Amino acid sequence: xxxxxxxxxxxxxxxxxxxxxxxxxxxxxxxxxxxxxxxxxxxxxxxxxxxxxxxxxxxxxxxxxxxxxxxxxxxxxxxxxxxxxxxxxxxxxxxxxxxxxxxxxxxxxxxxxxxxxxxxxxxxxxxxxxxxxxxxxxxxxxxxxxxxxxxxxxxxxxxxxxxxxxxxxxxxxxxxxxxxxxxxxxxxxxxxxxxxxxxxxxxxxxxxxxxxxxxxxxxxxxxxxxxxxxxxxxxxx
Length: 237
What we know:
Strands 1-2-3-4-5-6-7 form a seven-stranded mixed β-sheet. The chain is globular, with a radius of gyration of 16 Å. The mean pLDDT is 97. The protein contains seven helices and 15 strands. By secondary structure, the protein is of the alpha/beta class. The protein has helices spanning 40-49, 67-70, 73-78, 87-93, 109-120, 194-206, 226-235, and strands at 2-5, 8-10, 20-23, 29-32, 59-61, 82-86, 130-132, 137-138, 141-145, 154-158, 163-165, 170-174, 180-185, 213-215, 222-223. The protein has a single domain, classed as Ribonuclease Z/Hydroxyacylglutathione hydrolase-like (Metallo-beta-lactamase, Chain A), CATH 3.60.15. It starts with a strand and ends with a helix.
């Protein structure tokens, strides 16, 4: 586990997607996303390296419902961890709303394979402990609804550090495999509505929300001057 910017740490042994720990001490420890089910042991070992177990977590904040981010949420909930997600994705996770399949569309062949895996093995169903809405504040973070990648995708802005935890709506590595560094927006194959995802991303920045650091769902943390770098990227698309 690596310190990113106090009190945020990156569980860097997880390879499928990023998981962050916002550690304010006992009673104030929050995971941002949970990783994929195939990396469950890695997740637990990362927590153990920090002297923590599931019951030491205050809660999990999901950026969205996809299995590489919510894959261990139900497991952690069964061990007493409270799970939070935007109400739109909460409805899908609880199977109150139909889970629409991903379609390869304009994506690469590899993206099509990954989409088929997501369709066949989505995140395990659960009823969240609290459904979040745009404008909520939790764990010292603001909830910003940015629908498009999924209906319930959100950004979390950590007020103290001005770090933006962006899930898959804004990335620091290029999809679909996210092996190459570089700013990127949501990938078509994995996104419910690309036009809506782009509009949400633009609307968020039009609000003038300030952030210094970008902690994305895939890719290395972007530390310092992140907002201006993202704005330049968006202007050049």
